[in-house]
Structure to design on (856 residues):
């Protein structure tokens, strides 16, 4: 593949969820820098998850019976699942891939579990989306005031005289500066500063003077009548915070293995720009080393990467709402339900014998050449020991791909499809794949090759 | 490691991967059994321990559970204080035969009442304010003391619990080895796994390695579970089928050392009685047959069965004839070589509660330490990452 196409697909996999064939060809006619600038520019457009929450509105009404409330709770859970699938659909259909990618990254960083409250889920997703490429300090502050996070990390219970340290601890350990760079006393003082940061019944942020500790706190060697905003400001004054965040960004976007020199330089940029996230991402995408061979095709796709990428490539429509959740559950990444506040460990941790076999068969399920024969574990709350089954009915629209290749010979179809779909080198020749592809018509060949390429272990990395 | 080296090192380089020599090769080279099996049964959802091991002399119990308490005359009495739920007749016999240990009041400091977090804590053996990414049995596998085979630890399921995930090694999940074999061994996957032995980038290499391991283990396990199966008549329930699979594998002397079953449905916030008793009955009937089967195959002395749940339930029943999430709970051990069969420690103290919940007296990590040290023969500190005094269980 031409080197510019290779760079574009790499950029689009890391900054988004892959690129359509049509777009790849368009972009390859433009100077590469224009592509980068466009990607960053698009991500600046405000683009919130716009999802109606009729059931939530009903549930907040007073004066309904107990039975009505119980049935509402079920509907709320269903509505919450709809928030999940509409988020996945947004990742698939958005023409703003970097914003989608950054939002998913921040979801893993400021990990929140929201399993049955559609309002909390939606407002949390939109908190992330509003600041995904903005200022990191603003993002941390918005998270500290986010109704879902306040409840998830027990800041609702954090009151003057009876501090709850949960939020303060995670703020330091996971969200900003990292373990080993603060004392237990710092956590205690920070917790005091966040007392009274609550959420009201309508789910809005609410500062309660009654519960706030207005006394003097001493934090990171400074003394004052600090509140939460001050604590975040003081944490960001520490260069270590920029190093911690940049390391995580680097491992997610560039390579699991840290290059200290690159991280050092990026942290400097991030700190000097007063934690401007867009500036940080721009610097990464404009760096030559981002496109080095050793940084390409080395990242194991997360389940969401895999699903969204496949849905985009095949213009796939999952007909059954349940399929979204089933695939996420089986593969070990359910949006709004990370294992805990530390997010998903990622990398090789995605892979075990069961998840790998499902991943390799996923394209086969959609092409209906393989039957789904696995079940997902039941939820803890499920009444019986019943495992979740699904068939994954789906339709796809391959006509743009088929039209594009109509005039190509098989050899060219092979190299083009391979280079478009696989970010890792494939040591298998066309001739060796021929026994597994169909050759009656060109369409048959393209379809069967698509399926085979998406079944390869090489398709699992980007 | 390059894939070529990996193939050489594990003796998989042969193209005739699935022929019988290979299978016998597994036994010859791969793994030396010390003959000990560990079977773990996880009750997901939080089993109500107080209606499982019932404090039938305790007025507080009866006062707090006006509709749910089990009448004294129905309790299967173990001591003059506590006895089993009437559904646990099989367990009652095991108790009489000295094949069962009940440990009361098991938990951990600062208990968490969320299923997910509490189960994570049980899986990883962390403190309640720590977030660990590896499971205790996964870290045991990491140590590599019992060989390198992917199915050293086997969960009878289509997905793997965190307990079995290590840093470098993971357990193996197969609800049905033959089914997994079909999914992992379509001709195309066989071809790509074995035809090419090029050098790959590290993560792609890891995927190929996992694929090859999955194919060979699925083949091996399905081969081992085929043919002359156990004659014992297991109940036609999920737990019955799962234990039958395990019994077949143990009887065939496979290389699997740790077996894991995840049994769900214990989250009984409403109408608890029927649901819990149905589950306990399923468990009891299946375990009863399983233990007899092991005895017949002379494997009971080499097998240890542990049953646990992520937490117990609130002492006081709620308004829906159910119970809400609680804290400390009982843990069962079954086996032929128990050091202290019977009731291991004091019954729950219902007059001293924390926010309506039992206060733990045995840290579950002491139980893990005992299993690791005295059953699996490894140093518990290396795996639990802290020092816990093993208990005198096995």
């Amino acid at each position: 593949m031409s080197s510019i196409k290779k760079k574009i697909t790499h950029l689009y996999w890391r900054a988004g969820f892959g690129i359509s064939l049509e777009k790849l060809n368009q972009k390859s006619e433009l100077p590469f820098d224009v592509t980068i600038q466009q990607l960053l520019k698009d991500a600046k457009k405000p683009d919130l998850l716009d999802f109606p929450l009729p059931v939530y509105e009903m549930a907040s009404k007073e004066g309904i019976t107990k039975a009505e409330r119980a049935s509402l709770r079920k509907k709320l859970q269903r509505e919450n699942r709809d928030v999940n699938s509409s988020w996945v659909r947004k990742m698939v259909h958005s023409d703003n891939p970097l914003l989608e990618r950054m939002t998913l990254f921040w979801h893993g960083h400021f990990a929140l579990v929201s399993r049955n409250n559609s309002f909390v889920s939606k407002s949390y997703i939109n908190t992330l989306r509003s600041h995904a490429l903005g200022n990191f300090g603003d993002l941390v502050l918005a998270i500290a005031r986010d109704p879902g996070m306040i409840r998830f990390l027990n800041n609702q219970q954090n009151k003057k005289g009876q501090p709850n340290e949960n939020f303060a601890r995670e703020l330091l350990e996971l969200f900003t500066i990292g373990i080993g760079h603060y004392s237990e006393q710092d956590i205690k003082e920070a917790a005091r500063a966040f007392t009274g940061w609550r959420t009201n019944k309508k789910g809005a942020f609410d500062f309660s003077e009654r519960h706030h500790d207005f006394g003097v706190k001493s934090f990171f060697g400074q003394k004052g009548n600090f509140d939460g905003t001050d604590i975040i400001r003081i944490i960001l004054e520490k260069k270590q915070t920029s190093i911690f965040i940049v390391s995580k960004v680097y491992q997610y976007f560039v390579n699991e293995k840290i290059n200290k020199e690159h991280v050092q330089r990026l942290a400097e940029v991030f700190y000097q720009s007063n934690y401007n996230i867009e500036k940080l991402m721009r610097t990464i995408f404009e760096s030559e080393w981002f496109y080095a061979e050793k940084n390409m095709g080395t990242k194991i796709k997360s389940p969401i990467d895999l699903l969204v990428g496949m849905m985009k490539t095949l213009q796939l429509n999952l007909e059954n709402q349940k399929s979204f959740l089933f695939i996420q559950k089986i593969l070990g990444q359910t949006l709004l339900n990370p294992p805990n506040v530390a997010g998903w460990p990622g990398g090789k941790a995605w892979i075990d014998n069961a998840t790998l076999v499902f991943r390799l068969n996923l394209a086969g399920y959609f092409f209906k050449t393989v039957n789904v024969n696995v079940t997902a574990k039941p939820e803890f709350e499920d009444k019986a020991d019943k495992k979740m089954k699904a068939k994954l009915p789906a339709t796809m629209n391959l006509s743009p791909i088929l039209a594009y290749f109509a005039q190509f010979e098989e050899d060219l179809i092979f190299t083009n499809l391979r280079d478009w779909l696989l970010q890792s080198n494939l040591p298998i020749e066309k001739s060796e794949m021929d026994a597994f592809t169909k050759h009656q018509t060109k369409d048959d060949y393209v379809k069967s090759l698509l399926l085979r390429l998406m079944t390869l272990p090489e398709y699992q990395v980007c | 490691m390059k894939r070529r080296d990996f193939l050489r090192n594990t003796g998989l380089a042969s193209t005739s991967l699935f022929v019988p020599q290979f299978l016998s090769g597994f036994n010859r080279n791969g793994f030396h059994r010390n003959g000990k099996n560990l079977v773990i049964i996880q009750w997901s959802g939080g089993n109500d321990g107080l209606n499982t091991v019932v404090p039938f002399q305790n007025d507080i119990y009866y006062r707090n559970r006006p509709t749910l308490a089990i009448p004294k005359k129905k309790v299967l009495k173990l001591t003059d204080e506590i006895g089993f739920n009437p559904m646990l007749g099989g367990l009652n016999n095991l108790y009489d035969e000295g094949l069962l240990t009940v440990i009361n009041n098991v938990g951990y400091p600062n208990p968490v009442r969320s299923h997910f977090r509490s189960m994570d804590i049980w899986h990883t053996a962390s403190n309640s304010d720590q977030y660990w990414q590896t499971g205790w049995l996964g870290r045991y596998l990491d140590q590599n003391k019992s060989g390198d085979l992917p199915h050293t630890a086997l969960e009878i399921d289509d997905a793997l619990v965190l307990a079995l995930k290590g840093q470098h090694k993971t357990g193996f999940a197969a609800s049905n080895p033959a089914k997994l074999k079909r999914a992992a061994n379509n001709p195309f996957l066989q071809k790509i796994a074995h035809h090419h032995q090029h050098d790959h980038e590290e993560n792609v290499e890891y995927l190929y390695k996992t694929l090859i391991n999955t194919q060979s283990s699925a083949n091996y396990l399905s081969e081992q579970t085929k043919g002359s199966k156990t004659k014992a008549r297991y109940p036609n329930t999920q737990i019955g089928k799962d234990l039958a699979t395990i019994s077949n594998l143990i009887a065939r002397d496979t290389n699997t050392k740790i077996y894991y079953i995840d049994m769900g449905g214990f989250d009984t916030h409403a109408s608890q009685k029927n649901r819990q008793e149905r589950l306990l009955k399923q468990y009891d009937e299946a375990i009863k047959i399983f233990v007899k089967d092991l005895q017949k195959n002379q494997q009971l002395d080499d097998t240890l069965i542990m049953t646990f749940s992520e937490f117990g339930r609130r002492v006081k029943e709620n308004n829906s004839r159910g119970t809400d999430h609680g804290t400390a709970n009982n843990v069962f051990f079954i086996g032929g070589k128990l050091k202290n069969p019977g009731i291991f420690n004091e019954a729950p103290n219902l007059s001293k509660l924390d926010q309506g919940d039992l206060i733990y007296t045995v840290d579950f990590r002491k139980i893990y330490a005992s299993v690791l040290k005295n059953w699996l023969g490894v140093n518990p500190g290396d795996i639990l990452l802290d020092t816990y005094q093993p208990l005198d269980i096995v």
Observations:
- Residues 3-17+300-460 of chain A form one domain.
- Chain A touches chain B through 57 residues (CB under 8 Å).
